[in-house]
Amino acid sequence: MKFLHISDLHLGKRINEFSMIEDQKYMLNQILTTADRVSAEAVLIAGDIYDKPVPSAEAVQLFDGFLTGLADRGVTVLAVSGNHDSPERIAFGARLMQGRGVYMSPVYNGEAEEITLRDEYGEIHVFLLPFVKPAVVRHVLGREGAAEAPESYQEAVETAVNRMAANPEKRNVLVAHQFVTGAGRCDSEEVAVGGLDNVDAEVFERFDYVALGHIHSPQSVGRETVRYCGTPLKYSFSEAEQEKSVTVLEMGEKGKIMLSTEPLLPLRDMRKIRGTYAEVMSKTFYRETDTEDYLQITLTDEEDIPDGLQRLRTVYPNLMRLVYDNSRTRQDRMVEAAEEGERKSELELFGEFYELQNNQPMSGEQAEFISGLIKRLKSESLG
Known about the structure:
Elements (H helix, E strand, L loop, with lengths): L1 E5 L7 E2 L2 E2 L1 H18 L3 E5 L10 H16 L3 E5 L6 H5 L2 H4 L4 E3 L8 E7 L2 E8 L4 H11 L8 H10 L8 E7 L1 E2 L17 E2 L9 E5 L5 E3 L1 E6 L16 E7 L5 E7 L6 E6 L1 H4 L2 H4 L7 E6 L8 H5 L6 E6 L2 H17 L2 H13 L5 H19 L1
Parallel strand pairs: 1-4, 4-5, 5-6, 8-9, 9-12, 10-11, 12-14, 17-18, 18-19
Antiparallel strand pairs: 1-15, 2-3, 7-8, 13-14, 15-16
Helix pairs in contact: 1-2, 5-6, 11-12
């Protein structure tokens, strides 16, 4: 069976006050075309369907059209809510949509939705785990009178996964929206202080493939088949050099998985350009480029250009961000960095130091240990 793995659509998103709806519509149409081209039989959507818990009417209409396009093609849809979504809104109408092969994760109640698909090799069990916080799992367990009380994201996700009836003799796929330790982040993602939202990849060892969302850069974590597909569009200038794609998962018999990617080309690219005002406004500089792209322009002039943003937009209408890099701004950044260090907590500073030394954030357990250690040292010094 052949799947497309997508996530983090963030429908309705605005970047620097620019609406991305037109770009997102173009992108979703490309995904439909890709599904046709590769003969996909199912699409896994790993959360953050919308950019806000209460999405705009435009965003809802856009997603409705996308789901309808997949259903009309006979492509099964298996989707979970992410941390940007309202799980109740994502779950609305889920039982009705199942009749068209569209499965939306219900609000987490202690059991992950399980859907059984079939191909020539037998059953494929797909489990839908919406984004869960420790408090959500504690609430469910408390209502059941269970003794377990997970405090960390690691414990919460581990508890949720352990409650899934994944048969090791069958092929099992998990669709989830969490941060797995070791994954590289981008500026457009929400970050928990000290890596408190970390989950170890070993939690998912029972699954043949884990379709993850939450991280905006395409990458595998721990093993090739625990994978973030990344966003289908660039949502920050830290992603400017990335090539966006959808992940294609082809499952053969148990133990045989093939992964590949299909590129997605945006309606407008997101780029960074740099130079003096005279250079970037010269026709020889921009005539071979698409001036309609979303841009961050860094001017290296020592003096600010009066009405620089408006003047640059006469050539680059979708200029999102104008910054200066000169002797004054470099000095300002040094001062700001020192002040920012003074504003941060001990846990934040230690978390940054740990990530610098180890090239990955602290795990939730490590962050909790350091937090307790800091509190103990503070109380001892006061005593």
